[in-house]
């Protein structure tokens, strides 16, 4: 009659290895989820004290209709050309006061980057994804110009400098140093992106 | 009989499993630190658009979330298929956004109340009309800092 022993004991010596393997796997693959997106400031509800007169040539109008088509400065435009057009408008520098601009100095376009305003209007039926794409391109135009100047002055991209400045883990002495640089570049190309109320018709 | 009591020669010594709890605890702590608690379950479809010029939303305690999208399958019978706003755990109308923001702001510590960001998590199929109404509401309660939350990617993928 065969003798029945209890179940043979399983060797658990490699359990720790397996656990470590799992641990390392999760350590490598897990990203602590942080949301990211386009930061924007809405205009305050109270109108400014005195009326500001803005010359028409300093305003770059972008209209999006319900079919997702763009009307830029009264001309139809494809979204892929928007970034280039916005960049050209921002650094046009017609009055010559902007020394770092490389624009065409076209007298019918913006005077200098601090005066240039991009006005974005959309229809109520415009799809959100189209709107975000347009926003992305306009912010991209600012970022391209800021990156160029940051590369010239500090040899580093503005976007990396800014994210490093905003990162709470950056040591404070590095952040203080970055603050001035970031501020200077921001002042060179201030982001003036106006979103007026939507047209209903 | 001696034959049965004799220990076999090649028998392995039992492995000590005393360190197993340590390993399990380590894993536990790891997941505890990594896991972010989801405070509200999504009741709307929420496929965000892509964008490339994005900034990270640091510090979760300074963010108020607003979700917009078409209600998911189980809610479509009651709420229809038009995009709706979800605030915390319930659907809301546009005119409730302002009071929601004020209520959320009041819950935050004093020193954070002026630095709050409103994260708009909007489905890419939504129309701008609703977003414009929300933006108007946000302006009325002076919550001017908004973040259009997106996925990182090529913005032109949105147009397809």
TrEMBL record, chain A:
<keyword id="KW-0653">Protein transport</keyword>
<keyword id="KW-0472">Membrane</keyword>
<dbReference type="GO" id="GO:0005886">
    <property type="term" value="C:plasma membrane"/>
</dbReference>
<keyword id="KW-1133">Transmembrane helix</keyword>
<protein>
    <submittedName>
        <fullName>Biopolymer transporter ExbD</fullName>
    </submittedName>
</protein>
<dbReference type="InterPro" id="IPR003400">
    <property type="entry name" value="ExbD"/>
</dbReference>
<keyword id="KW-1003">Cell membrane</keyword>
<dbReference type="GO" id="GO:0022857">
    <property type="term" value="F:transmembrane transporter activity"/>
</dbReference>
<keyword id="KW-0812">Transmembrane</keyword>
<dbReference type="Pfam" id="PF02472">
    <property type="entry name" value="ExbD"/>
</dbReference>
<dbReference type="GO" id="GO:0015031">
    <property type="term" value="P:protein transport"/>
</dbReference>
<comment type="similarity">
    <text>Belongs to the ExbD/TolR family.</text>
</comment>
<keyword id="KW-0813">Transport</keyword>
TrEMBL record, chain B:
<keyword id="KW-0813">Transport</keyword>
<dbReference type="GO" id="GO:0015031">
    <property type="term" value="P:protein transport"/>
</dbReference>
<keyword id="KW-0812">Transmembrane</keyword>
<keyword id="KW-1003">Cell membrane</keyword>
<comment type="similarity">
    <text>Belongs to the ExbD/TolR family.</text>
</comment>
<protein>
    <submittedName>
        <fullName>Biopolymer transporter ExbD</fullName>
    </submittedName>
</protein>
<dbReference type="GO" id="GO:0022857">
    <property type="term" value="F:transmembrane transporter activity"/>
</dbReference>
<feature type="transmembrane region" description="Helical">
    <location>
        <begin position="12"/>
        <end position="32"/>
    </location>
</feature>
<keyword id="KW-0653">Protein transport</keyword>
<keyword id="KW-0472">Membrane</keyword>
<dbReference type="Pfam" id="PF02472">
    <property type="entry name" value="ExbD"/>
</dbReference>
<keyword id="KW-1133">Transmembrane helix</keyword>
<dbReference type="GO" id="GO:0005886">
    <property type="term" value="C:plasma membrane"/>
</dbReference>
<dbReference type="InterPro" id="IPR003400">
    <property type="entry name" value="ExbD"/>
</dbReference>
């Amino acid at each position: 009659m065969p003798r029945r022993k209890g179940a043979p004991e399983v060797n658990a010596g490699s359990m720790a290895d397996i656990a470590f393997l799992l641990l390392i796997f999760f350590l490598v693959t897990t990203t602590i989820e942080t949301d990211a997106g386009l930061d924007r400031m809405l205009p305050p509800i109270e109108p400014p004290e005195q009326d500001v007169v803005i010359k028409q040539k300093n305003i770059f109008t972008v209209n999006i209709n319900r079919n997702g088509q763009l009307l830029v400065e009264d001309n139809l435009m494809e979204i892929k050309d928007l970034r280039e057009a916005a960049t050209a408008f921002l650094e046009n520098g017609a009055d010559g006061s902007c020394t770092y601009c490389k624009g065409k100095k076209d007298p019918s376009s913006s005077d200098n980057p601090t005066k240039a305003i991009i006005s974005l209007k959309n229809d109520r039926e415009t799809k959100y994804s189209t709107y975000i794409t347009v926003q992305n391109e306009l912010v991209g135009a600012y970022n391209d110009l800021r990156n160029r100047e940051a590369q010239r002055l500090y040899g580093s991209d503005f976007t990396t400098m800014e994210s490093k400045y905003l990162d709470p883990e950056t040591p404070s002495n590095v952040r203080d140093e970055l603050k001035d640089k970031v501020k200077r570049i921001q002042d060179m190309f201030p982001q003036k992106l106006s979103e007026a109320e939507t047209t209903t018709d | 009989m001696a034959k049965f009591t004799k220990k076999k020669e090649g028998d392995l010594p039992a492995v000590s499993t005393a360190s197993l709890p340590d390993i399990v605890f380590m894993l536990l702590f790891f997941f505890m630190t990594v896991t972010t608690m989801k405070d509200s379950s999504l009741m709307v479809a929420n496929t965000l658009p892509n964008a490339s010029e994005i900034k990270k939303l640091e510090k979760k305690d300074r963010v108020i979330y607003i979700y917009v999208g078409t209600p998911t399958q189980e809610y479509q019978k009651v709420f229809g298929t038009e995009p709706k706003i979800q605030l915390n755990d319930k659907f809301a109308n546009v005119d409730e956004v302002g009071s929601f923001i004020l209520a959320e702001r009041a819950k935050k510590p004093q020193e954070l109340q002026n630095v709050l960001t409103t994260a708009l998590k909007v489905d890419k199929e939504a129309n701008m009309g609703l977003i414009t109404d929300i933006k108007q509401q946000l302006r009325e309660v002076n919550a001017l800092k908004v973040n259009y939350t997106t996925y990182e990617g090529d913005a032109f993928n949105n147009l397809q």
